[in-house]
């Protein structure tokens, strides 16, 4: 299976027995099935550095439980849990496994859906702002970058990237590339609708899917000069870190 997203390492308090630590990955197999896997405590120590975004692995000696959809953005009914017994091995890349699985929503549809919700989108980067460091009201040091994404429904939305995703090289965002964004949390902001890429989400440049090719053709064939309906108020990137 391929790792299509990887969370940061989190610690938690288990009460009188002390604390614990956990991280999550999303795994995509050759059949297009995607499931979340959680690694706890000793499994974190053994496998956090081994499991890298985009690489392929075999995983065994985990357990299966029914997914809690309140906290699990994957659509799979089940999720995997790995502890100190987990056996993980990196394997050669399997070209038959997609880089990411997108269940796409066109931007015009986002205009009428009940807020808040999470969506996967694909479009052209019509604008990419600079990487900005700032301090939140709670005193947290944050980094963000605001993107304007437009698709062939002639609709655009602002999506905010956070942390390491925002820090990627400026040149990646130049030249109006097509991007796929998985796990965009859409909320009301400044009387408009704006998105924030969740920690468990994914950003893919030039995804190898038919939707990306269609949007690229639309942009090249005159879409870039069309009148665009903007869902987001200018300067109104999503206000909460994902």
UniProtKB/TrEMBL annotation:
Pfam families per UniProt: REPA_OB_2, tRNA_anti-codon
Q: Which InterPro entries match?
A: NA-bd_OB-fold, NA-bd_OB_tRNA, REPA_OB_2
Query: What GO molecular functions are on record for this protein?
Result: DNA binding; zinc ion binding
Q: Where is the OB domain?
A: 2-84
User: Which keywords does this chain's UniProt record carry?
Assistant: DNA-binding, Metal-binding, Zinc, Zinc-finger
- Domain Replication protein A OB positions: 109-204
Question: What family is it from?
Answer: Belongs to the replication factor A protein 1 family.
Q: What is this protein called?
A: Replication protein A subunit
């Amino acid at each position: 299976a391929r790792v299509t997203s990887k969370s940061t390492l989190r610690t938690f308090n288990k009460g009188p027995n002390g604390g614990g630590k956990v991280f999550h990955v999303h795994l995509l197999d050759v059949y297009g099935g995607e499931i979340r896997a959680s690694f706890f405590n000793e499994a974190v120590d053994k496998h956090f550095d081994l499991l890298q975004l985009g690489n392929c692995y075999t995983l065994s000696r985990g357990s299966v439980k029914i997914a809690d959809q309140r906290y699990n953005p994957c659509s799979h009914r089940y999720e995997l849990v790995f502890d100190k017994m987990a056996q993980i091995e990196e394997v050669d890349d399997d070209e038959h496994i997609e880089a990411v699985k997108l269940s796409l929503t066109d931007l015009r549809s986002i205009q009428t859906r009940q807020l808040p919700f999470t969506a996967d989108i694909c479009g052209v980067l019509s604008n990419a702002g600079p990487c900005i460091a700032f301090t939140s009201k709670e005193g947290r040091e944050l980094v963000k970058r605001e993107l304007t994404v437009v698709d062939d429904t002639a609709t655009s939305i602002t999506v905010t990237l956070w942390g390491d995703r925002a820090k990627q090289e400026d040149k990646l965002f130049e030249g109006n590339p097509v991007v796929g964004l998985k796990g965009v949390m859409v909320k009301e902001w400044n009387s408009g609708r704006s998105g924030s890429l969740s920690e468990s989400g994914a950003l893919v440049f030039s995804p190898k899917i038919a939707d990306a090719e269609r949007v690229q053709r639309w942009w090249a064939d005159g879409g870039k000069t069309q009148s665009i309906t903007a869902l987001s108020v200018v300067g109104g990137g999503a206000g909460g870190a994902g």
